Amino acid sequence: MRLLRAFPLSLLTLCLLIGQGQLALAAKKPETKAVKKEEKANPSVITKVTPVAEIARQSAIWHQWTDVEGRKVDAMFCAFSQDFITIQTKDGKTFHFNVNILIPEDREFAVACAGKDKEASFSPAVIAAASADVDRLIQAVLASKEQKPNPLATDEQFLRRIYVDAIGRVPTAEEANEFLNDAAGNKRAKLIDKLVYSPGYTMQMFNWMADLLRVKDTFGKGIPAFTFEDWLKSRIASNAPWNQLVKEMVTADGRLTDNGAAGFMLFDADMPLDGVSNLMTTFLGTNMACAQCHDHPLAEWKQRDFFQMASFFGATDGKNEAIQRQIQGTLKADPTLPKQAVIKIALVNSYRLEDQSKNTLTFPMDYKYKDAKPSSPVSPVLISWDKGDAKLPIYKLDTMHPSQLRDEFARWLTSPQNPRFATNIANRLWKKAFGLAVLEPVVDIDDLSQASSPELLAHLTSVMKAARFDMREFQRVIYNSRTYQSGASVTPDLAKGPYLFNGPLVRRLTAEQAWDSFVVNSVGTNADNILLRRSDTLMAYSLPDGKVTAAVVHKVIDSVNKNGKGKSLTDGKKTGGGSTMGLATGYEGEKPITRFSMTMARASELPQPASESHFLRLFGQGDRLLTDSATNDGSVPQVLQMMNGSIGKLVSDPTGVAIGAALKSKATDGSIHSLYLSYLSRHPTPVELAAAQKGLANGLHLADLAWVLANTREFLFIQ
Fold it and tell me: What's the pLDDT at 31?
């Protein structure tokens, strides 16, 4: 058993080391609203930078890209992997394409940007030291309870675990062989870095965030939210720090057609108080839902506390009904306008985030407590978890200007001084890797003393702050720890005491992880380059500034129909999830194929969420109505889907990549080994090999063996 060497390193030293290497390639400084307005008035021109050797901070972010036909576009570099580059233009659109269509100088520039991106990350020494600190804390707690860490996981177990956790799918046989045959002593660390800098990392992080942020294709009365999805994917691809990403969502202005980040707040535009409750749960791990209607019976929160927090959004409107009436009024002026189309255009353009000069929030008419009068105005006041919180500098906010209240709240929310913001995301990411949070449930972390190890939770919070909320670097620390690389434990009985993390827990693949694994085994790793981007489909609905006339509405309808090529979004049908709107023209990079009536794209590149009959929903993908709505519970429909449903047919398809790779082996033994690597990430035992040989000799096919392996518990669970 080999332990990672423990390098003594204080958090101050860690911060200094990070500061020396922090070249945030794709993370722009957050813009204030004043800056945004100034840019609209005086748009700047981005000049091209060609000398690769002189890449500076800003030139590494923005660049004028030129293709071999001479076409140019100003865009921010986001990611580069496997010959595919992702860039983002100033209007928020992302593009994913093969780098070979660019001129040689820009191909070289893309490679240099990717290299600089990695230079911005923690050094191996910093990672080793931070990971060792995690291990020391856990081992000390285990020793105090006369427990020991689990033995180190085998290479096969680690391989499968890190692929699933870091990029959301099992490795292919080729990828498994590459790692298992590597004799280098640092091959685990190398694999971790390879995966977190790959396109698959963006896809799995989107799946995780989509459940957290309640990402849906539509909200309200069927309003498409494609720009929010595309914005989120681009921010993950550019490795935007969590605090910056959250600030952009909470302070977003305008329509979804103008600003994809507005999607988070607009989701609750019709129920703003519910939106505040969801925000508190999502970003602070604080459950104030009960306090929305009455004093919380089991916590310290009062109804007054809830409304004082909600007052920070009391001047924010999410829907401009005057605009909606103007657009719908064009039906009277021109009866030839299609009614459903006009209604959809009115809805899309009326949902917009705007801050007013007056705070209109009041206490409820039936408010029954003595600390305020019913229907009286509510002044914004921040909550505190401990007596000393209010003395922190970040609690000194300007609450005198209603139009700036959201900005002030976001400044407090995302600050390293916030008592729960860093702890919440660190606790959630730990659960993502280990199957259990340090403090459960993740939606209620008010009392930090209830953590299984308060010291560990405090340390993880410090690491998150030291990493400047860089979630990729934080996960690198976790993945490189000896604790994460230990053998897995079965689900503990928490009634007998807290789990102290002898190792990660055995857990079932999420719906997205299982689906993505099936897709890659069917069509190969090209699935990592199939990206669904549908912003243009929604942006066609955007009305220009100025007077709304029937002629203007006619132009928008023509734009919508042209963009949808005859399949517009204005059919008036409200979808409960699983809409295929825009799928025909929304894919960039590689194009998906269809097998057994299923689109062979990864879960992040399919409708959000999938239809109720889709494999993803049957296996627990959430409906996204609530935060953390996904589940890993088993069911009879899951078994039927695996045995004789579309997935069963997909696994047994002889044209699939996994079976195709097995067929390339001239020897039967080699074919068996290949399928075991494709599904279980390991070689068969002698007993398994003999059984498979016997079955194939008696008339079974490799497709039958693939079906058997896909239906094992070992495939569906992460050890």
Answer: 39
